[in-house]
Write a structure and sequence with these properties.
The complex is a heterodimer of chains A (131) and B (425).
Chain A (H helix, E strand, L loop, with lengths): L1 E9 L12 H20 L3 E6 L8 E4 L5 E4 L7 E10 L3 H12 L13 E5 L9
Antiparallel strand pairs in A: 1-5, 1-6, 2-5, 3-4
Chain B lengths: L2 H22 L3 H22 L5 H27 L1 H11 L14 H9 L6 H12 L4 H7 L4 H18 L8 H23 L7 H20 L4 H14 L25 H16 L5 H14 L8 H14 L3 H15 L1 H9 L11 H14 L2 H14 L3 H27 L1
Helix pairs in contact in B: 1-2, 1-3, 1-5, 2-3, 3-4, 5-6, 6-8, 6-9, 7-8, 9-10, 9-11, 10-11, 11-12, 11-13, 12-13, 13-14, 14-15, 15-16, 15-17, 16-17, 17-18, 18-19
The chains are: A alpha+beta (131), B mainly alpha (425).
C-alpha cells in the first residue's frame, strides 16, 4: 500500500527558515534526509520524494478566460507550508506512521528535533474488487 | 529472431538454468544474480546476432562465468580480510561448467517456486523474487509493473534473498510434512500476482496486465508439474475464467463495468471453454478446495450469455460449501449477494448483519457497497444512497470510487425527479 507523507513546516517561528540556520545545523539536517532516503530505498519502500523550494515564491494559479493562467500570492500570512513529501510503498499502515515519526525527528537549529507534523495519506492505488 | 520471441524463450529457460546452477552452488542469491546478468546479456545479443544453437547451454555458461567472476573477487576480498575463510571459499569457487547439455531437472522450477514463496518472506518480496527467479523478468520490468523505481525494486529483491540466506532455506524440496502448507503459499503468491495485473486492466496499464499473463503462465507451469493437485488446477481455472472477462470489465476511460452490465459478447469464449473443461475435470475427481470452488463459481457466471440467465441457486450452493471451508468475511459477503439474488434483497441484508461485528470487514468499503446495492434492489433509496456514499469515501481504488459515486449520483437524480413529480401533483 502506498502512502504520501507530507512534511508541514510551521511558518514564521524561525524553525524551518533554513537560510538562517548555521551551516553545521543545515549540514546535519541534509545528512539526516539523505540517510532517510537511502534507508527507504534500501528497504525497498521508496517510490519518490521531493523537497520543495521555500514558500516565498509560491503562487496559486487558476485558469482565467481562455485558460490563461491567473496567479495569486505569495501568501506570507499562511500558518504552515508544505516543505517536502515522500511516497512510500509499505506492507502495513503502521510502517508508514513509523517512517513519518522518523521524518518528524529531523534535526533543526542546535540539533534539536524539529518535531514537525507529518500528514500521512493513503494513495488511491488499491485494486478494485470484481463482482 | 524477433525480440518478443527471444523474451518468451528466455522466460522459459530462466528457471531451468537457475535450477541447474542453484543445485551446484550453495549461494542462491549469487546464482540468481548471475542468471539475471546472463538473461540481460542474451536479451541484448540474441535479437542482433541470432539465437545460439544451444540457448540453454549459452545461458548456463555465461551465468557460471559471471558467478565465478563474482566468487573470485569475493575470495580476493576475503583473503585480505581473513585467510582461513578464503580457503573454504576457494574450494567450491571454481567448479568448471559441465560440457554439453545443461542438467535440467523437472522439479527445479518447483523447488524455485517453493523458495521464492517461502513464508519467511513478505508477500511483496515473494512476488518480486518469483517474477525474477522463476518468471525470468528483469528488475526493470518488475519495477515498471509495480510502479516503483528500479533501485527500490532491486533492493526488495536483494532483501528477499538475504532473508532466504538468513533463514537457511536449502535448495531442495520441502519435507512431506511441510509440503501442503508451502504449496498453499505458492498458490497464494501466484494468485496475488494475477490479481495485481487483473485489477489494473485498461488501456493505460498494459505493463501491469502483463502480470496476469505472467501469473497464468507460471500457474500453467505449476499445473504441468503437479497435474494431480486439485487446488493448483482450480487456481489455474479461476485465473483463466476470470481473465476471459478482461476486455469487458472496463470502459474506454478505464471505468469499472460490473459483471451484470458487461457486454458478454466481448468475453473470450476460447478461454471460457478451456477453464470450464479444466474445472469440470478437476471436480469430477472428487477433490474440493477454495480455488476449485471459486473457479466453479466463475464458471457459472461465464456460462450465462445474459446476466439474467445466471444460475444463482447454483452459485449460492457453491458459496455455502465455500463458507464451510473458509472463515473469510469477503466470502460471507458474496454469499449474501447470492442469497439476495435467489431469495430477494431482505435475505441478503439479514445475512450481512452478522458482519457488522467482524473487525476484519466492519470498516471495509465492500460492506457498504453491497448493502447499498441490496437496499437499492429493495427500493429503499435513502439507505442505498447513504451506503453508496459511505462506500465511495472508504474505498482506496479510484475506479471503484468513481463507480460508487456515479451510482450515488444516479440515485440522487432519481430521487429529485420523483420529489419534483410529487410536488407538482
Amino acid at each position: 500500500m502506498r502512502y504520501m507523507l507530507m512534511m508541514h513546516a510551521p511558518r514564521g517561528t524561525g524553525d524551518y527558515q533554513v537560510s538562517e540556520w548555521s551551516p553545521a545545523d543545515l549540514k546535519a539536517h541534509i545528512e539526516f534526509m539523505h540517510r532517510l532516503n537511502n534507508d527507504l530505498t534500501q528497504a525497498g519502500e521508496m517510490v519518490s520524494g521531493e523537497g520543495l523550494a521555500g514558500p516565498g515564491e509560491a503562487r496559486l494559479v487558476r485558469a482565467g478566460r481562455n485558460g490563461v493562467p491567473i496567479t495569486d500570492g505569495p501568501f506570507p500570512e499562511a500558518k504552515e507550508f508544505l516543505a517536502g513529501f515522500w511516497i512510500v510503498d509499505v506492507e502495513r499502515p503502521e510502517r508508514a506512521y513509523e517512517i513519518a515519526a522518523r521524518i518528524s525527528t529531523a534535526p533543526g537549529p542546535g540539533g534539536t528535533p524539529l518535531n514537525m507534523p507529518i500528514e500521512v495519506r493513503q494513495v488511491m492505488s488499491a485494486p478494485p474488487t470484481d463482482g | 529472431m524477433a525480440p518478443s520471441n527471444v523474451e518468451h524463450l528466455l522466460r522459459d529457460l530462466a528457471p531451468q538454468v537457475l535450477g541447474a546452477i542453484a543445485r551446484r552452488h550453495e549461494d542462491f542469491g549469487a546464482a540468481e544474480d548471475a542468471v539475471q546478468e546472463a538473461l540481460i546479456a542474451a536479451a541484448e545479443q540474441w535479437p542482433e546476432d541470432g539465437v545460439p544453437a544451444n540457448p540453454r547451454g549459452w545461458l548456463y555458461h555465461v551465468a557460471v562465468r559471471r558467478l565465478t567472476d563474482h566468487i573470485r573477487s569475493e575470495v580476493s576480498r576475503r583473503r585480505r580480510e581473513d585467510t582461513v575463510a578464503s580457503e573454504v571459499w576457494a574450494e567450491w569457487a571454481f567448479v568448471p561448467p559441465p560440457e554439453g547439455e545443461v542438467d535440467v531437472q523437472q522439479d527445479d522450477a518447483l523447488v524455485l517456486l517453493f523458495m521464492c514463496c517461502h513464508p519467511a518472506l513478505t508477500p511483496s518480496s515473494s512476488i518480486a523474487l518469483t517474477l525474477r527467479a522463476v518468471g525470468g523478468l528483469t528488475t526493470a520490468e518488475i519495477a515498471r509493473a509495480f510502479l516503483v523505481p528500479e533501485a527500490t525494486m532491486a533492493q526488495r529483491i536483494s532483501r528477499a534473498k538475504q532473508s532466504i540466506r538468513a533463514s537457511g532455506i536449502p535448495f531442495r524440496m520441502p519435507t512431506d510434512e511441510e509440503r501442503a502448507e508451502r504449496l498453499s503459499a505458492v498458490r497464494h503468491i501466484l494468485y496475488l500476482i494475477f490479481n495485481e495485473g487483473y485489477a489494473s486492466s485498461g488501456g493505460a496499464d498494459l505493463v501491469r496486465t502483463d502480470l496476469s499473463n505472467e501469473a497464468i503462465r507460471l500457474t500453467r507451469m505449476l499445473h504441468a508439474l503437479l497435474p494431480d493437485d486439485g487446488e493448483v488446477a482450480g487456481l489455474l481455472a479461476l485465473m483463466i475464467l476470470t481473465d476471459a472477462r478482461r476486455a469487458a470489465r472496463t470502459g474506454p476511460s478505464g471505468e469499472l463495468i460490473p459483471l451484470d452490465e458487461q457486454d458478454r459478447s466481448r468475453w473470450d469464449q476460447r478461454l471460457i471453454r478451456e477453464g470450464i473443461a479444466l474445472i469440470s475435470e478437476t471436480l469430477s475427481k472428487g477433490s474440493v478446495g477454495v480455488y476449485q470452488l471459486q473457479a466453479a463459481i466463475a464458471a457459472v457466471h461465464d456460462e450465462a450469455s445474459r446476466s439474467e440467465d445466471t444460475d444463482w441457486p447454483q452459485i449460492l450452493a457453491l458459496y455455502d460449501v465455500l463458507r464451510g471451508l473458509q472463515d473469510n468475511p469477503m466470502v460471507s459477503l458474496n454469499h449474501a449477494i447470492a442469497a439476495a439474488m435467489v431469495h430477494g434483497p431482505a435475505a441478503g441484508l439479514e445475512l450481512i448483519e452478522a458482519l457488522d461485528g467482524d473487525a476484519r470487514i466492519r470498516e471495509h468499503y465492500r460492506l457498504d457497497a453491497v448493502r447499498a446495492h441490496l437496499y437499492e434492489m429493495a427500493g429503499d433509496h435513502d439507505r442505498a444512497l447513504t451506503h453508496y456514499r459511505a462506500a465511495a469515501t472508504r474505498t482506496t481504488s479510484i475506479p471503484e470510487r468513481n463507480y460508487l459515486t456515479a451510482k450515488a449520483g444516479r440515485l440522487r437524480e432519481r430521487q429529485r425527479a420523483s420529489e419534483s413529480a410529487e410536488s407538482e401533483r
